[in-house]
Structure formats: structure tokens, C-alpha cells
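Subject: Sanity check before I submit

Could someone independently write out the C-alpha cells for this chain? I want to compare against mine line by line before I put it in a report. The sequence has 291 residues.
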Amino acid sequence: MSHARRKNLVEHDHPRLSIVHQCKLLTINRSSYYYQPTGETPLNLELMSLIDKQHLESPWYGARQMARHLRREGYGVGRKRIGRLMRQMGLSAIYQKPNTSKPHPQHRIYPYLLRGMTIDRPNQVWCADISYIPMRRGFLYLVAIMDWASRKVLSWRLSNTMDADFCVAALEDALARYNKPEIFNTDQGSQFTSDEFTGALNGAEIRISMDGKGRWMDNVMIERLWRSLKYECIYLHAFETGSEVRQGTGRWIDFYNQRRPHSKLDGKTPDEVYWQKSRPGYAGPMIQMAA
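---
Independent answer below. Compare away.
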């Protein structure tokens, strides 16, 4: 169980157990229970929003190039500051390099299973990714579970931390509503390699696949989802609160699944392809993975 989940279990008004005793039972420091993060400064929040927009345009920018871009825009920032903010946002440059993600050193890494595979039917392969969502006075993280063949967003969750809990909740929701895939593919981020997430997949008897070296292009599909969501919803509305983000994101994802046609889906919507609502003779999208 993650530290954040154990911290949430502490009951301030418990009739019999003091906070000290509860913290001992849950193996958390009492100081960490009382700690309230100060959050980012208004300038850093502005920089994070600019970084997010530029990352959608130039996903190959690392911290050094991103800092150069922001200095040209009039911000006196250094590479180390931008690197910290990018790590806080969960962003890294997308290009082929020896290690494109930062797995937890104690978590098991599963092999990549999609090499050379033809993905041509719903529930054959699902995937997941996390994105940074800016608000007017803060930010949240969004995880989405997507069906690979149809591009349908099966479930999603928002969180103010990068713990694995909200990823597990999204996975459990997708499994409850759409049965299960044959294979679930993710990157090697610590949320997806955690015991909670992989345990839920193993418990459902789903084969686990994780991107390895040279598989950076596999994430492009869901990166397009993030780009569309942000330009068509998030940036247009500048939401004030988490509840506004949740309502706006839900409306847009319903639109994306039900009414937004895709050129890669022969002009159909994700729902039409997922539920096989296609023209006579249409065999569905086919994706051939590189060898």
C-alpha cells in the first residue's frame, strides 16, 4: 500500500486510537502526516503551463532545449530548474535513447510482447499513460486506459499525486466495464511497475507488456490523445478547480469516444470501431507493430 493511501487511513477523530498510535500501526512518520506541501510558486505554475504546451509541439525537447526556448520567450530560467519542473510534470523528451523511462529500482520489469504483432481487434491490447493537466492555480495528473485497436478511452482518473492508486482505480474500472484485454502494455514508469498495478493485471490473468529500448514510438498514439484533449478542452477553458477539470474532461472524452471521427479509423469514431458498428465489409483497423 502506498504512503499516500496509508496517510489517508489516519482518522483525526478516532474514538480509541491517537494519531501517534495510528501512525505507528500504519508505519508512517507522524511528521509526514501533518506535513502540508507548499505547492509551486505562481511563476513556476506559469512555466509549467508553457512547458506543457511546448512539449506537445516539440516532444523531443529535453530540459536544456526547453530552457533555451523559454529564455527566448523572455524567462530567465536555467536547465536545472526546468529539469525539476519537467520531472514534477512527468515529462521527458521523446526520442530513441538507452533508457526512455525511470522505473523503480525494486520493481520487476516485464518483457515487451508487441514486437511484430498485428493488432486488429478490440480487447486484444490495452495501454495506459499519465499526463500533466494544468489549472489556473495548480495542476493535476490524468491517467487514461485506452484500447489500442479502436483508440477508445475505456476509463480515466485524476489525481493530485503521482502515486499508483489512481492508476489502479482506472484499471479496475476498465476491467469492470469492458471485460479484459489479452495484453496490457505500458511504459516502465513506477506507477505501472508497482505491485498494486501489476498485481491487478496478474490477478485478472492478463499478460503484461512493457516498452523497452527503442520502443518510444509506441506511445505516440496516446500522446495524440493528450494533444487533442489539451488543445480542444483544457487550454480553452483554463479551469479553476479540480471538479471543473473533472467535469470538462468527462464531457470531452465522451465527445471523443462517441462523436469524434478518426482518419486512422477510416473516418469512424472509437465507439463505432470498439463495438464493431462499421460498414458491411469493414474489417476494422489493423496495426502492424514493428519487428
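---
OP: Matches mine. For the report I'm noting this point. Strands lie at 118-119, 125-135, 138-147, 153-159, 183-186, 207-210, 287-288.
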